[in-house]
Amino acid sequence: MFKTVLFPIDQSRETREAADVVTNVVKKYSSRLVLLSVVEEPPPDAPSADPMVSPEVVAKLLENAQSLFFGQGIQSEILERQGKPAFTICDVADEIGADLIIMGCRGLGLTEEGADDSVTTRVINLSPCPVLIVP
């Protein structure tokens, strides 16, 4: 049913909690697992403390996630892209032929003021495939 699962990751607690669901789904359906992290372009002239704008931090995050899944007996592929997270996630899902995107209910891109503009909400609205949101 779910031949290819895309798991976009960031450093949020919600992403870590979603990893258990990813493990269960991938094992149950013998899915191909693709881990994706997006390096965000910082706004011009704005110093950013956001770790997701550092390619080194994102690369380490992907390596750690791949190791975590390997420890569960799951092979995974890693992709690192640059751009706006929601659009990049949907583009990659289309590119790899994902059957399912699994993500936490609230990534680092969501604030109380911008709940309607969250990465999760945008992915749900733009995704070329079903999206499983883990609360």
Number of beta-strand segments: 5
Shape: globular
Radius of gyration: 14 Å
Distance from N terminus to C terminus (CA atoms, Å) equals 22 Å
Average pLDDT, all residues = 88
Provide a descriptive summary of the structure in words.
Helices cover 40% and strands 21% of the residues. Helix 3 packs parallel to helix 4 (119-126). It is globular and about 45 Å long. It contains four helices and five strands; from the N terminus they run E-H-E-H-E-H-E-H-E. Helix 2 links the parallel strand 2 (32-39) and strand 3.
Which descriptors would you attach to this protein?
alpha/beta; 21% strand; 5-stranded parallel sheet; 40% helix; 135 residues; 5 strands
Helix and strand arrangement:
Elements: E1 4-8, H1 13-29, E2 32-39, H2 55-71, E3 76-82, H3 85-96, E4 100-104, H4 119-126, E5 131-134
Parallel strand pairs: 1-2, 1-4, 2-3, 4-5
Provide a brief overview of the structure.
With 135 residues, this protein is of the alpha/beta class. The protein is built from four helices and five strands. α4 (119-126) links the parallel β4 and β5 (131-134).
